Amino acid sequence: MIDSTTKNLPRHIAIVMDGNGRWAKKRGLPRAAGHKIGADSVEAVVNTCARLGIQALSLFAFSTENWNRPKDEVSFLMDLLVRFLRDKIKTLHKNNIRFQMIGDRCGLNDLILAEVCAAEELTKNNSGLAMNIAINYSGRWDIANAAKNIAVQAAANLLKPEEICADKFREFTCLANLPDPDLLIRTSGEYRISNFMLWQLAYTELYFTTVTWPDFREKELEQAILEYTKRERRFGMISEQLAAQAK
Ligand code: FPP
Predict the structure, then answer these.
(1) In a domain, 143, yes or no
(2) Probe ligand 1: pick from 15, 16, 20, max atoms within 8 Å of CB?
(3) Res. 203: pLDDT tops 90
(4) The pTM is what?
(5) Whose CA is nearest to atom 8 of ligand 1?
(6) What is the 3-state secondary structure (H, E, C) of 152-186?
(7) Which structural domain, as residue segments, surrounds residue 24?
(8) Residue 112, pLDDT score
(9) Is 162's pLDDT higher than 90?
(10) Structural domain total, the chain
């Protein structure tokens, strides 16, 4: 179990929540049932991260590519997001959680946009867990969008090409106000990044589990975090250098 003596907790956890459909199929239920129970797992991991004092949690809820799913599944997922925000935002706010959406707002309908904006506005001054939900998001979109905004600034003479470096580029990506994820979790036994936070995951520790998302709760999250605490992160250096730095 994780307690106040546990060292090296991740500051930022990112999760690819996968396996809702398979969870439902195994039980003879429609895919929507898996998404619905998956929303309960979202609540569980948010509460666990807040309790553990984790700085940020980023959840991949709907990718740019998910628009290609059957129409009724897309509508169900959008409704679920709206309902989640409506039902839970007051509690999230009471728990000092700051909500933020990442992704392309252009493709979203007015209903979800209104709910997202209201949730962001209500919680913007909170200082606890930063809860980021990726909707209509892809890592390549984030990078291309940053490049576009840099080009706009350069064209307006607000930025010189020679000033563009990795640190400057980062300022234009989503979540530039937070540390990059320390830990990426993917559930359901799939071993892919699937276009999530491509820029931000450069040095992130990866954790894969066969547990499907609707079954991923507090115990499974703590297990992932504990495994992370044992990893040695070298950031391109060697162990001896890290030991010298720690002295
Ligand atoms: C992947 O499982 C899951 C999704 C594409 C949707 C994620 C949405 C939720 C967890 C519920 C709502 C979220 C919030 C933030 C309230 P899949 O459908 O691809 O599963 P499969 O690979 O087994 O088919």
Answers:
(1) no
(2) 20
(3) yes
(4) 0.96
(5) 61
(6) HHHHCCCCCHHHCCHHHHHCCCCCCCCCCCCEEEE
(7) 12-138+180-246
(8) 96
(9) yes
(10) 1
